[in-house]
Amino acid sequence: MHDETAHTLKPGPDDPVLVGAAAALRDGALVAFPTETVYGLGADARNGLAVARIFETKGRPSFNPLIVHVMDREMAGQYVTMTREAMVLADTFWPGPLTLVLPAREGNGTSSLVSAGLDTLAVRVPAHPVAQALLRAADCPIAAPSANRSGRISPTRAEHVRAEFGDTVPIILDGGASDVGLESTIVDLSGSEPFLLRPGGISKEALEAALGEELVAPERLVSEIPTAPGQLASHYAPAASVRLNAGAVDVGEGLLGFGSKLPDTSGPVVNLSVHGDLREAAANLFDGLRMLDAAGVSCIAVMPIPLAGIGVAINDRLQRAAAPRN
Ligand code: TXA
Ligand code: MG
User: What's the predicted TM-score (pTM) here?
Assistant: First the structure.
């Protein structure tokens, strides 16, 4: 750990590596860590300079607020007001791929950069054991966006983080491939009715069943006006262009397939799920886009993905990947 090169570390339980990473985090360093959704680029949320380094490293517009990762519901309550609905959703889905936007507690100690000056905070309790162990060892709230350069594909493996940042992120904790593979579902509970800001690992139907009421959701998957400040239309973009609902593959295209019947092609193919399993497809999505990029195709043809359950979140990410770029 004493040379100048970057480290990708695979921590076991009670590993000294975790203790070292936690100490570095508390010292103001950035630590990339695995979660069950995607890898995060973490900083101590109370340290404005460390949080600023996240924006700088990602090249992210600073108006875009960050999610605060905490150990459990009690810790969340130190930073936000846990409303009745928040308690219900936390009981049902935490730890897990759900982020709640709630009224920030005054004087909660997090840097104003985290909330980008809003009077709400987004909080989440990740389930991944390495994320949990890091939170426990660091004993501080961790502000973390996905560990990718702004506008690019979110990382689902430690190697993806290394490919995004090289040596500019010295500590990357390797916890294997992310199970869910898509970012958390974000529900805004700070207004008069619950609002689905971002579809993700937990479906709208599952949330509504837990809440016993309907969720207001964005009408279109990709709106022209950003709903969450970070919901810019072009996002999750691979280097290649992306063509959706493809029934056939053109010359020079790579194929992102789904199911057992794929169109003919002599180009590179990644099948998200041979069995047509949407959870498996979600877990493979970002890795698949990266693999086709690495194969050097100029365009990625994507087969239709059903709009059910987590398929809604998959289609949301694909539409952003295909959106016009600026
Ligand atoms: O699964 C995830 O959520 C991953 C892992 C690392 O936890 N994180 C993630 O962070 O996807 P990020 O920064 O890429 O996306 C966070 C989203 C952004 O769209 C941001 O605008 C929104 O959350 N957000 C954060 N705080 C908010 C707030 N107070 N009000 C509304 N939206 C907020
Ligand atoms: Mg992101």
Answer: 0.90
